[in-house]
Amino acid sequence: MSYSKEDLKDLYEGRLPWPKIKEIMSRPKDDDRFEKYVEILQEKVPWKEKILLPIGEHLYIVQKGAERIVKCDCGHEFGDYRRNWKLSALIFARDTREKLEEVYPGIKCPWPEFCEVREFYCPGCGALLKVDSVPVGYPIIFDFLPNLDAFYRDWLGKPLPTSQEPRDMSNDVIMSWRAKLS
Ligand SMILES: [Zn+2]
């Protein structure tokens, strides 16, 4: 059986009663669930670029001309999806006891000698996009580099019109910072 787009929209927006949610969760996924989900998301965003893949509560990989870029629902663009978008975000590092205590009060507070909490915000709308809790000095984590061509071709059976090698290009960003310093 296949659920209607209205049912799925109510599901994603938290309007369905629990028995209905449980029924949907317990059944095998519809073959077209991803396409319907993306259609619902596309109707909600204020821009026209085609969503290829949602990658967070506010973030999407979209097709913009020949490029595939990360875009926030506010419209802010982070650039090529193969470069870690976090390197272009606003970053607040909770790296002192005082800053950590604001979210982990009292005995729950991690030791700032060992742990830091990094908050990544959208430069366009200020939305909190991701929180990473990592050892001090740990590289910025690249959460997800999907193989979009393989996903569309092998899983959805609908190959994208052009293809791109899913190569991690994050180092290009760091090298451009280095070039500015020298
Ligand atoms: Zn934004």
Task: Please describe the structure with a list of short key phrases separated by commas or semicolons.
6 helices, 182 residues, 7 strands, four-stranded antiparallel β-sheet, alpha+beta, binds zinc ion, globular
Task: Please tell me about this protein's structure.
By secondary structure, this protein is of the alpha+beta class. It has a domain at 1-44. It contains six helices and seven strands, in the order αααβββββαββαα. It has a four-stranded antiparallel sheet. Strand 3 and strand 4 form a beta hairpin. The mean pLDDT is 93. The structure holds zinc ion (ZN). Zinc ion is lined by residues 58, 72, 74, 76, 122, 124-125, 127.
Would you spell out the secondary-structure blueprint of this structure?
Elements: H1 5-12, H2 18-26, H3 33-44, E1 50-54, E2 59-64, E3 67-72, E4 77-80, E5 90-94, H4 97-101, E6 115-121, E7 128-135, H5 148-155, H6 170-181
Antiparallel strand pairs: 1-2, 2-3, 3-4, 5-6, 6-7
Zinc ion is lined by residues 58, 72, 74, 76, 122, 124-125, 127.
